[in-house]
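Final report, section 2: Outcomes. Of the targets proposed, ATP-dependent 6-phosphofructokinase is the one most frequently requested by collaborating groups, and we therefore present its record in full.
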Amino acid sequence: MKKIGVLTSGGDAPGMNAAIRAVVKTAIANGIQPIGFIKGYNGILEKNYHVMDRESVSGIIHSGGTILKTARCMEFYEASYREKAFHNAKEIGLDGLVVIGGDGSYRGAGYLSELGLPCIGVPGTIDNDIASTEYTIGYDTAMNTVVECVDKLNDTCQSHERCSVVEVMGRHAGHIALNTGIATGAVQIITEEIPTPIDDVVENVKKIRESGKDHFIVIVSEGYGNPVEIATQIQEKTGIDSRATILGHVQRGGNPTLKDRVNATRMGYYAVKLLEEGKTNRVVALQQGNLVDYDIQEALKMKKPLDMDLYNMMMEISF
Ligand code: ATP
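The predicted structure is given below as tokens.
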């Protein structure tokens, strides 16, 4: 193995830089030339890449975002463009590719593997919505950002005896909502997996108020519904002054936490080792703290339900 590529694809996530650094350094340490493609699969299609060395990944382990930039690449949904990408990769002399991204990026990597370019996927998304792994790069940092913001909202909620309805990211998955709900002492989380009707939310808030609590945090996962509408309904039906806050893209930035840096480094390292062992069409995953790998198509069929034990615990002590 002489030359491998690395790219980041889909949405960005804090810790992607740590993963890129690990791929580049592991490659160099093993006598392999690393190439960094710019803006996801676009970089292969346009032959837009940097030859990477130690210097190109110096001083990036602590920074959010991705030095390789990331993007969606619509052409990749078409077989003819994927074939073009495969030919470009061969012309560049690639022996393998590490793709850091989500499930969609894995699909692209699966197709390239089928064409004959060994590919390994590394889970990079703040949403933790990749079923094959219990952890994705960026998830921990994003949740810590949410907690920091909600703590601030909680301060002002306490002072004014208000209810804050906070929309957090997670796409169709409620993992961020559930864990940050627990960590901030929320009275309710609402997600697509647990689509609590607004009247039940209102009843819960009323019941908790009767127990003496005078300020409330409700965490809503994006995709469930409009947080402004939920806040309006709570205010109208309980009389509690209620405000909606959409945290938005602030959750995708910031310096990665220790956990994200360490796991991103482990995963990047592991991905290069898989390529060195001649593996292809695999994704790296964390299961019970250990790194494992799965066939891409097998990984894409997996399901990761929301942890209902955690949810039930949260609701039992939410008063
Ligand atoms: P995130 O979780 O941040 O959204 P993702 O990797 O799931 O990350 P997508 O937008 O689904 O994000 O996919 C990223 C890119 O991967 C797409 O723009 C496209 O280039 C490629 N891709 C996604 N799905 C496919 C597919 N079915 N076939 C080929 N390529 C795909």
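Residues 9-11, 40-41, 72-73, 76-77, 101-105, 107-108, 111, 125, 127 surround adenosine-5'-triphosphate (CB under 6 Å).
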